[in-house]
Amino acid sequence: MQALIEACQNRNFPAEVVCAITNNSEAAGLKIAEQAGVPAFIVRDKPLDADKIHEIFVQHKVDLICLAGFMRILQANFLSKWNNKVINIHPSLLPSFKGLNAQEQALKAGVKIAGCTVHYVTPEIDAGAIIAQIAVPVLPADDIQSLSERILAEEHKCYVEAVRSIAENINY
Hints:
Elements: H1 2-8, E1 20-22, H2 28-36, E2 40-42, H3 50-59, E3 65-66, H4 76-81, E4 86-90, H5 102-109, E5 113-120, E6 130-137, H6 144-168
Parallel strand pairs: 1-2, 3-4
Antiparallel strand pairs: 4-5, 5-6
């Protein structure tokens, strides 16, 4: 979220962050949004209040929803209202290593290249169309933490460039 807010503060960037929503009152994104002057909202978690999320997005005239650290599955009825307008970043080169613990999955599989993927969110987890990817070499001394840190640094770049690409093509 920090990378997206910083990118959007550049007046040449074709997007802006108009609100932030979380289901976690302890989320770091709340403080990041507050410091950037972005309206932030906490919604009920169990069950996830998708109607409230939809209402907030409509109220703020959201064109693109960027998930960042949002670890809940969005249901098909919500996604159908926001078809091809919800994107996510995943710490693997999809379609490999879907779901949780992608870096651990990559290390256990013995791959030489890992990375990150920005993709459209669909009801099937980590299965939407790929928007952007960045490869990250797996080093012989890597453990989950070191690989995760290097992938995270690339996620920030990949997400910003994916948002730029999408925003430049949104027709108002």
